[in-house]
Amino acid sequence: MKMYLISDNVDTKTGMRLAGVEGVVVHEMEEIRNALDEALKDRDIGIILITEKLGKLIADKIKDIKLNYHTPLIVEIPDRHGTGRTPDSITKYVREAIGLKI
Fold first, then answer.
1. 41 vs 36: CA distance, rounded Å
2. CA 49 – CA 76 distance, rounded (Å)
3. Which residues contact residue 79 at a Cβ distance below 8 angstroms, ignoring those fewer than 6 apart?
4. What is the pLDDT of residues 4-31, one digit of tens each?
5. Which among 7, 3, 4 is positioned nearest to 81, based on CA atoms?
6. The whole model's pTM is what?
7. Which CATH architecture has domain 2-98?
């Protein structure tokens, strides 16, 4: 199994390429959806890395894949500008998922 990157940033793609991860840089909504569809067709891809910015743009598609596909695993990663998440995002996620305040 291999990883594949869908990024909106050349620097992120370059860094991942140095780690042996192939990928594509996209900006438009249609390009993002096409890149994701092409990655889903490749049965050798086990993990799709997508930058958080792009993940937000196609959140509905990512949610559908996570719910209906066994593979690949989709992981949203921060780009070189950092994460768009709030400091308590993991705590909030746990609270929403299981109803416990930690």
1. 9
2. 6
3. 7, 8, 9, 11, 12, 51, 52, 53
4. 999 998 988 998 899 999 999 999 999 9
5. 7
6. 0.78
7. 3-Layer(aba) Sandwich (3.40)
